[in-house]
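Thought: the user wants the 3D structure for the chain below. I'll pass the sequence to the structure tool as-is, report back what it returns, then summarize two notable features.
Action: structure_tool
Action Input:
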Amino acid sequence: MKNISADELARWQKEQFQFQLVDVRSGEEHNSYNIGGILIPLDELLRRSHEISLEMPVVFYCRKGVRSQIAIQRLSEKFPVADFFNLQGGVGK
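Observation:
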């Protein structure tokens, strides 16, 4: 599984690198604090996988990086050639 650090993600954002950011936390967590991107809670991920772009790298995030790892594992089975990244350590909130 590919990880991306918070510093590297910030660099991608600053340089306007084309990627999709997906928050897999709950709606309440997302509303309380988020770093952008679309919200697709982990329990809705497979049903809403059509919202994820396979044309560019996709960075998944959650609070600690655990749910985002699960998200990538689930989606990698469905999309084995996709370019998925886990935000290492999550957002901590």
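Final Answer: Structure generated. The chain has one domain: 2-87. The chain is about 30% helix and 20% strand.
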